[in-house]
Design a protein that fits this description.
The chain is α/β, with parallel strands linked by helices and about 350 residues long. Helices cover about 40% and strands about 25% of the residues. The chain has 13 helices and 15 strands. A seven-stranded mixed sheet has the order 12-11-7-10-9-8-15. The radius of gyration is 20 Å and the shape is globular. The two termini are about 40 Å apart.
């Protein structure tokens, strides 16, 4: 039995608490820490089998009974808590991104060197049933050599301008999932990124210094081309689709809906809208990623996404930011050189 501590009891922290309590029999949550934890959250956590709650995450770091830490706190705390947990000899699951600062990510890389600790980054979409099936189809060669990858990722409604200011912006907050998905489907890294972006959804996002709409094109190391289209607003729901085109055919996945019922009548053909947002769309994926993290600990296996998988999408996000600002293609090697890698 792996005793777990969870840092952060907000929206994503609650997701992982629920996943462990209901889907991961080899783990038990001993402590949940959050400086802003409420009485209501404490009472709810008890119903999920959580033994203890606190406002100080150091209780988790310093507890010898806890062998694994889930970091679900604000992004600006991820790398620092990772370092503290690693130095305390604990396995770490860290929500994306590890940090927006490459140098801080590299500190985590160095801290892991020479240890046998497991470190997993929370790119949950790899564990979605649709994207898993698509990746398997491509990997098995059923569509031949990959030539074009298309990813559509559109949120149902824009975040607040206050959130935008601290989130890292579109490319390091939202598109970072799509950068990971491109790597997953192509089975290689990107060489070059080019962005066309605009502020079309909410003027407040532009005033906060960010964009809300983007088309990103990428050249992959295996020669394939990729296209990502992002919007902060899709009035019909959470739009999550992908297509891989190859020398022998094409494979594609569409949105998940409440049902596949279609109504055909004199007015036309209608069906269900996509599930509203990421909690509805990816709840099973969140559970599966934690199951695999715990399995890696119990059976001493590699985690499905290590620290390098946390670094590469951030490099792609920084390249996208630079391309958006300077209106030119940016090679990943250029960003790596700037970061001293």
């Amino acid at each position: 039995m792996v005793k777990v501590g969870i840092v952060g009891a907000g929206r994503i922290g609650r997701v992982h608490i629920t996943s462990i309590a209901t889907r991961v029999p080899d783990a038990r949550i001993k402590t949940v820490a959050d400086p802003f934890i409420t009485r209501e959250t404490e009472e709810w956590a008890k119903t999920m089998g959580v033994e203890h709650t606190t406002k100080d995450y150091h209780e988790i770091i310093n507890d010898p009974e806890i062998s694994a830490v889930l970091i679900c706190s604000s992004t600006d705390t991820h790398s620092q808590i990772s370092l503290e947990a690693i130095r305390a000899g604990k396995h770490v699951f860290c929500e994306k991104p590890v940090d927006h600062d490459v140098k801080k990510i590299m500190e985590v890389v160095k801290a892991l060197e020479g240890t046998k600790l497991k470190y997993q980054v929370g790119f949950n979409r790899r564990f979605d049933h649709n994207f898993e099936a698509l990746q398997k189809t491509v990997a098995e060669g059923k569509i031949g050599k990959t030539e074009i990858i298309k990813i559509t990722s559109r949120d149902p409604e824009p975040p607040s301008a206050d959130y935008v200011k601290v989130s890292g912006g579109l490319f390091l907050d939202m598109t970072i999932h799509d950068f990971d998905m491109v790597r997953f489907l192509a089975d290689c890294d990107a060489e070059e990124v080019y962005v066309q972006s605009a502020n079309l959804v909410d003027p407040a996002i532009g005033e906060a210094g960010d964009v809300d709409t983007a088309i990103i094109t990428l050249k992959m190391e295996n020669g394939a081309l990729a296209v990502i289209d992002n919007s902060r607003r899709a009035v019909y729901g959470y739009d999550q689709r992908a297509e891989v085109f190859g020398s022998m055919g094409m494979a594609a996945v569409s949105n998940d809906n409440q049902s596949t019922v279609q109504i055909s009548n004199s007015e036309g053909i209608t069906g269900e809208k996509p599930l509203f947002f990421f909690l509805e769309r990816y709840m099973d994926a969140y559970g599966k990623e934690i199951s695999e993290f715990i399995d890696a600990i119990v059976n001493d296996k590699e985690t499905p996404l290590g620290i390098e998988d946390g670094l590469k999408p951030v490099l792609m996000g920084l390249a996208a930011q630079k391309s958006s600002q300077e209106h030119r293609p940016v090679r990943i090697s250029e960003i790596m050189s700037e970061e001293g890698l």
